[in-house]
Amino acid sequence: MYNKLWHQTQEALNSLLDTESQKMVEPQRNQVLIFQMLATFYIKYVQIFRNLEMVYDQIVHPQKRILIRKILDGVMGRILELKNEMVELELTEFHYFDDILQDLKLAPQQLDIPIPKYFLREKLEVIKEREKILAQILADTGLYTADVKYYIKAIPLEEAVKLIQIAERARQGRLRALFMKQIYLQEYRAKQAKLLSERMADTGAAALRIQKVWRGFHQCRETEKLREEEMIFLGM
After folding, report:
1. Mean confidence (pLDDT) of the chain
2. Rounded distance between C-alpha atoms, residue 41 and residue 163, angstroms
3. Are 115 and 101 in contact, with CB atoms under 8 Å apart?
4. Rounded to an integer, what distance in angstroms lies between the CA atom of residue 188 and that of residue 142?
5. Among residues 48, 50, 51, which one has the least CA distance to residue 40?
6. What span, in angstroms and rounded, lies between the C-alpha atoms of 6 and 139?
7. What integer pLDDT is reported at residue 217 of this predicted model?
8. What are the C-alpha distances in Å from 3 to residues 54, 59, 61, 76?
9. pTM reported for the whole predicted model
10. Is the pLDDT of residue 233 over 70?
11. Rg, Å, the chain Cα set
């Protein structure tokens, strides 16, 4: 399984290296296109790193582990280089990859860079020695509390029941308050919707009344004009 994943990751890495070499030959002046190119490479290298880290953690063959370790270190170095190039390009350490993630059909969680497990294993002795020194310093200053025992005081059954009842009543009160708030909001929204509909109805009635008045006025003017034309025609 992990051998297959290693081969797939190696093929993806070779393809990415070919694509990267071709893109680097073609000069780009558009800052947006340059960032999209760097971000795409960065995301793909992160995916390769995650797969290689998983493979290196599971494969036990010594020669394969040596080779995978070299590739893994190189991929981590390239990720740092791409990150530095993006920071220098945008002058910020925070970048947005939403569009690129959507194009690559990846989730934001797949951009997380886990700490390689071999970091902890290889530095286990250093970590233990550091913890020992820290414990000694705390013990010398009187702040070391590893041997301190905390005693829990038992309470009577009646007092425990009373505390539980108080907590339950408080919980029910919060639920009741939340329920009443929801009812109030529903009534408020219904009232606002009713007022809005009434205002719209009033606006429609006012517009209809204005139309009636204007039509009557316009018809009176037309009638007066026709009467004058008829009087002129009759010579009166």
Report:
1. 85
2. 59
3. no
4. 61
5. 48
6. 48
7. 85
8. 11, 8, 10, 21
9. 0.55
10. no
11. 39
Give 122's Cβ-side CA count (13 Å radius).
7
Both tokens assigned to 200: 């719209």
Count Cβ atoms below 10 Å from residue 2 Cβ, excluding itself. 16
Report H helices in 62-156.
62-90, 98-104, 117-122, 124-141
Which residue ranges make up each domain of the chain?
2-114, 159-236
Token duo for residue 23 = 């893109």
Give per-residue pLDDT as tens, 69-126.
Answer: 999 999 999 999 999 999 998 888 888 888 898 888 888 888 899 888 888 888 888 8
Do residues 95 and 34 lie in contact, with contact meaning Cβ atoms separated by under 8 Å?
A: no
Q: How many angstroms separate the CA atoms of 73 and 77, rounded?
A: 6
Q: How much is the average pLDDT of 171-200?
A: 85
Kindly tell me the sign of the dihedral angle through the C-alpha atoms of 221, 224, 230, 231.
negative
**Contact assessment for residue 105 and residue 95, using Cβ atoms and an 8 Å cutoff:** no
Confidence of residue 149 (pLDDT cuts 50, 70, 90): low
CA dihedral 112, 113, 116, 119 (to 10 degrees): -120
In the chain, the N- to C-terminal Cα span, in Å, equals 111
